[in-house]
Specification:
The protein is mostly helical. It has one domain. Helix content is 74%, strand content 0%. The chain has 2 helices and no strands. The longest helix has 20 residues, at 26-45. It is globular, with a radius of gyration of 12 Å.
Length: 47
């Protein structure tokens, strides 16, 4: 199950141009990914 989540993260990262920070733990990177995606969402709403 974990590898499916990792595969999904990689697909989302590639689709939206997110560059994960490998030095951070996975929990911190998950939070950074969500923040990045919400920022992209906010930008789309502002158009």
């Amino acid at each position: 199950m974990k590898s499916l989540g990792e595969d999904l993260d990689k697909a989302v990262d590639a689709a939206y141009g997110y560059k994960p920070n490998k030095a951070e733990g996975s929990k911190k990177d998950d939070a950074a990914r969500v923040a990045f995606l919400f920022e992209r969402y906010q930008q789309q709403l502002a158009r």
